[in-house]
Design a protein that fits this description.
The complex is a heterodimer of chains A (about 280) and B (about 350).
Chain A lengths: L5 H9 L2 H18 L1 H4 L34 H37 L1 H15 L3 H11 L4 H27 L3 H8 L4 H37 L11 H9 L7 H28 L4
Chain B lengths: L2 H30 L4 H6 L5 H10 L6 H13 L13 H36 L4 H15 L2 H15 L23 H7 L3 H38 L2 H8 L4 H38 L5 H10 L3 H29 L1 H11 L1
Helix pairs in contact in B: 1-4, 1-13, 5-6, 5-9, 5-11, 6-9, 7-9, 7-11, 8-9, 9-11, 10-11, 11-12, 11-13, 12-13
Classes of the chains: A mainly alpha (about 280), B mainly alpha (about 350).
Chain lengths: ~280, ~350
């Protein structure tokens, strides 16, 4: 992997309209999530109480995305769903990413039995499709928000371990690493001060793509009824609940479904743009 | 020993080790969770005597390592324990529900290959021209959309608004399931010569298989495209252009086949993802597969059944990867050549 200066990367990123579209979508979704309290038309509809005079209304000027079976404004709940999804993605990745990166550094640089144990362990985790492993963990724990995040975190770190391991294996042969070793730098110094910064483009790119995929995973769990529980507004469970009222109240599941699509698409386009700009192999 | 065979035996050994690892992982996760499995199994109204009896019968009083030993012994005898939900052996339940899931996943896998590869090839052939842009946009949208969202969208469009496909299930009402041979309705119907049942089963498969296949199609197209663009930079492509081969033939033969190898390796992973996503799609189309069973046993904290379902899925994943390895080693000329040299 060739490291590029960030200004070169930015120039390249800017030249691709698809990447810019990704950036705009991401900024838009994050802004909605951050300012949900201010911009949502009916912030009081987050909880279990709706407006019983406006049940199951089709999209209109007052309710752009319609209302649900107990008269809550769907747009409001989707925007709060963005907030919850993004928050969960950030929490999951802020634990699994550092753990995975450190283990990958250790396995790639130290080699020997450390490498053997860690890499076989990641093989085991990666042999179970993520959704199935997360579902199984949820099977052993009560279905709560915290446990859903825990389940996704437990299965997410091996991807970073494998990624960083591969980067370290190719970086360790580079001249700058040899030079540091020759002048007697300690292993922790070489790993964390010399090699780690060069893993950053790959890790950051994967992180961007993963925010989308964690959102996808968490919403899949709650679609199956194994994640976030009502009345907390969650995109996955909104799609599942709405599907019961098809096709008459089609908006109940189609709008949350499109919302997931937009959110994941944004992070994917942005991640793809970063990958191309940094030449990172993810 | 031929290199292909040696490679496969090596892979097989690693797969068995990984599967053992998976069994340890899932077994220990199942045992370290808070709560007494026997009490969970028997429900809140069970007496202490009943709980003690079940603890004794399931060896729950032994140290955890010994418990794992019992678990493996039963597993090797094909015994995955008894489901608390259906009151039947888990192995039997899995055998009942799994064929429906596998049939769905295989049809989706076929769609992924038959549509994803040509789409990727076209994108690479017309790189940076409009077919490429359209194909890339379609594939990124396909990849970013969860399978259940596709399910809901397809169902609304093609079963409710424009009802050309059935809403749910594997067969229409009034059509009996074909006699059980493989559990695949399409194959069983053909084996019995029930042509109308066969078409009915295919008709019911189209929407769920498409919902399941779409993200795989996108992923395959993306991989094929990038892999082929890599191949296009090789000297032999320039050479075949110099020889005057038509662009279409170059793309169809010279650039496509070498690019297939990296794509195939990832296809194995995509197939595994489909096994997981089948859980979501089955939910939308009320497909009587492993998913309904899986979600039900998870909701009911049916520990043996959960462990059984996860092990079956992991085993399927490993088998898929072995098959992919086999195909890759057959079509990869480097491995084939090594074999020829070894024989000479």
């Amino acid at each position: 992997m060739s490291a590029k200066s960030s200004s070169v990367a930015w120039t390249e990123f800017r030249s691709n309209p698809i990447s810019i579209l990704g950036l705009i979508l991401v900024v838009f979704c994050i802004a909605l999530a951050l300012f949900a309290d201010v911009i949502t038309p009916y912030p009081e509809h987050v909880g279990p109480i709706g407006d019983f005079t406006a049940i199951n209304q089709a999209p209109s000027a007052a309710h752009w995305f319609g209302t649900d079976t107990i008269g809550r404004d769907l747009l409001t709940r989707i925007i709060y769903g963005f907030r919850l999804s993004l928050l969960m993605a950030v929490l999951v990745l802020s634990i699994s990413m550092p753990v995975g990166v450190i283990l990958g550094l250790l396995a790639g640089y130290l080699g020997g039995w450390v490498e053997f144990v860690l890499m076989r362990l990641t093989d085991i985790f990666l042999a179970i499709p993520p959704l199935v492993l997360a579902m199984a963990i949820m099977g052993f724990l009560p279905a709560t928000l915290t446990n859903a995040m825990l389940a996704v975190t437990v299965m997410w770190w091996p991807w970073y371990t494998r990624l960083v391991y591969n980067v370290v294996r190719s970086e360790a042969r580079e001249g700058y690493v040899l030079a540091a070793e020759v002048i007697g730098a300690s292993s922790p110094h070489v790993m964390f001060r010399e090699i780690l910064p060069n893993c950053a483009p790959a890790v950051l790119t994967k992180l961007t793509l993963d925010i989308g995929f964690v959102v996808l995973m968490v919403s899949s769990l709650s679609f199956l009824g194994l994640g976030v529980q009502p009345p907390t507004p969650d995109l996955g469970s909104m799609v599942a609940d709405g599907a019961k009222y098809m096709p008459d109240a089609w908006w109940l599941s189609i709008f949350p479904a499109l919302a997931i699509m937009v959110l994941v698409l944004g992070f994917n386009l942005l991640g793809d743009g970063l990958r191309e700009a940094f030449d990172a192999e993810v | 020993m031929s290199p292909v065979l040696r490679l496969l035996l090596q892979r097989l050994a690693i797969s068995v080790l990984v599967l053992i690892g998976v069994s340890i992982l899932i077994f220990f996760i199942a045992r370290i969770v808070p709560g007494d499995p026997a009490r969970i199994a028997l429900g809140p109204n069970a007496s202490q005597a009943q709980i003690d009896a079940l603890r004794e019968a399931r060896h729950l009083n032994d140290p955890i390592v010994v418990q794992y030993g019992w678990f493996i012994r039963d597993l090797l005898h094909g015994d995955l324990g008894t489901s608390l939900y259906t009151k039947r052996p888990v192995a039997q339940d899995v055998a009942t529900y799994f064929p429906a899931t596998l049939e769905l996943v295989l049809y989706a896998g076929a769609m992924m290959i038959l549509l994803g590869l040509p789409l990727g090839r076209l994108a690479a052939r017309f790189q940076r021209r409009w077919p490429d842009h359209v194909a890339r946009l379609l594939s990124v949208i396909a990849v970013c959309t969860p399978a259940f969202v596709w399910g809901v969208i397809l169902q609304l469009t093609f079963a409710y608004i424009w009802p050309i496909f059935p809403l749910e299930g594997r067969l229409s009402n009034g059509i009996d399931a074909p006699p059980l041979i493989t559990g695949f309705y399409t194959i069983d119907a053909l084996l019995n010569g029930q042509i109308s049942t066969f078409f009915n089963a295919v008709y019911h498969l189209i929407l769920p298989a498409t919902a399941l296949a779409l993200s795989g199609i996108g992923q395959t197209a993306r991989l094929t495209r990038s892999s082929m663009i890599e191949t296009y930079r090789r000297p032999f492509i320039g050479m075949s252009r110099a020889y005057g081969f038509r662009e279409d033939r170059i793309s169809r033969r010279f650039a496509f086949w070498p690019s297939l190898i990296p794509t195939l390796t990832i296809l194995g992973l995509d197939f595994a993802t489909m096994l997981a996503n089948a859980f979501l799609v089955e939910r939308v189309f009320v497909w009587p597969g492993l998913s309904r069973y899986g979600v039900e046993v998870i909701m009911r904290k049916d520990l043996d059944a959960i462990v059984g379902v996860v092990l079956v899925i992991a085993a399927m994943f490993l088998i898929t990867n072995l098959v992919v390895d086999l195909i890759v080693s057959i079509i990869n000329p480097r491995i084939r050549l090594a074999e020829r040299k070894a024989k000479a």
